[in-house]
Hints:
By secondary structure, the protein is an alpha/beta fold.
Amino acid sequence: MVTIIVAAHGESAPALVSTASMILGNLENVHAVTFLPGQGPEDLQAEYARIEKESGAEEVLLLVDLFGGSPYNAAVLFAAERENIDVVSGVNIPMLVEVISAAGRKSATLSSLVAKAHKAGTKGIRSYQEANQPDAAAKPAEAPKPAAVEVPAEQQVPGGHMDAVFMRIDSRLIHGQVAGSWVPHVAPQTLIAASDNAAADKLRKTLLLQVAPTSVKTNVLDIAKSGRVYSNPKYTGMKTMFVVENPVDALRLLDEGIEIAEINVGGVTFKQGMVQLSDAVYASEEDLAAYRELLSRGVKLTLQKLPNHSPVNLAKVLKDKGLDK
């Protein structure tokens, strides 16, 4: 078990941890340490030691703000004669989210998390204009995203299709909760954001692909093309995660032939005239009709923002609110 300590000047460490919690849900073995006026390095070392002792940590990773700052210097003194403690400076949200996500895996080690911190912290620093320069030589090279693995022609089965292992309704499509929590949880081979609007909007499509997780091949496709790709024998059995903006599009995917037994309803933002179904999900009359149709087809609908949140049966919510008919 690796305990993570985030230490920074002022109140920024609790804010960083709170932001990570918003993206990842409840956090375990993650602690924030403040450094306020009037405190010294000995106060920080004492707090690091307290957390290490109370958490029963086998290994400790300290993520601090400034190289050479007091949280860093105190952390270095704390780690100097211990092989089970390391310190990484320059903590930011991409670094923190990636490290926390990786720390939850059984294979996580201190050295592997340090490597994650370096990579994610650096990669999270991007310029939109630079990333979209037509001259590829002008921008830093990035590791290519993994390609979708096709089934060899001799192994393709007529009528074969992808394995839709997860579908989420989320009006933002791909963002921190999807990339940082659900993709690691579901572990698909490919991720498809299915949306006519996003597929036709060059800028939005570019932004979605930029925030997509590097661990899976990601595409932004319109609904009809999503159905054709799903039914392509070249991708028979490929574990695929779908994200759609609303229940109407989820229903359209089913009409395109995509088979799914359960749909996660994660986040639909409020618009005028919508009713509230949960703290993160609102629905229009058209949405409610689509939810009722999905339920009539035997699809289970579950309200759940993050993997470590308790799922709530949407059918019961609709019934309790008198919206099931």
